[in-house]
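WARN retry 2 of 3 for item q-0093 after timeout on previous attempt; input resubmitted unchanged.
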Amino acid sequence: MPRTIITTCGTSLFKSCCWRYGGLCDNSFLGLGSEKERMDYESTCNSKLKEALEKDCDLSKEFEPFSWENLAYMKDLPAELASLKAIKIYYDNSQKGSLGNGDKVILLHSDNKEGSFCANVIYNVLKENNLLPGIEIEKWPIIGLDPSDAERFGSALLEIWQKSITKFEENENEEYIFNLTGGYKGVGILLGAFAYINACAKIFYLYEETNYEKITVMSFDPNSPVPGISEFKAGYSDVKTGKEILIHLPPERFD
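OK item q-0093 returned
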């Protein structure tokens, strides 16, 4: 069964340093010894990458693949790329088999200058460097999804629920996977609700606090002991090995 990974895209790119532009890839977040040093370097990255945006630079041409190829340096990547790398490793080691021909990644992004820029760069980096071999890459802009306009933002969320998600429901022969690492919380909530209603295969979320060594894996199992209610399962996958560890809470936690 073909798999579609819906990936919410935000603007974490502006806090990444995997770019030759401005010599950003000369340094790494890995070697920074304190929170202040990390935040200072994030500020430097943000300044230079916003400059690339204003100059309409083709930033994808400046991508340095070292941090994709070396797991220890994943934190130098935008969250969307880092999470897709972790998901790739997960499926490379799963019984369902590696991602590849017939599978698809959809980059769901906002309707503003920064969101479109970041999604375009991620899209081009994935395509031009063949980071996900055999996988089709698509971009889906969400018209009106701009947090600076509260009224249009609310309408855009409605658009996601009424129109975009119906596209997923049209094809029951696809397995839908949600990578909610990037993007806006409101979008993540809606996609999580859809995953519950349709008992989708997996939901992934990569937290910075795990030092990019683990990615959270969640799912809803329709074969629940309680009729009509999908059972929620949670765990994590070790990024290095792709091994999934389910979290089992003791029964007394629910007394």
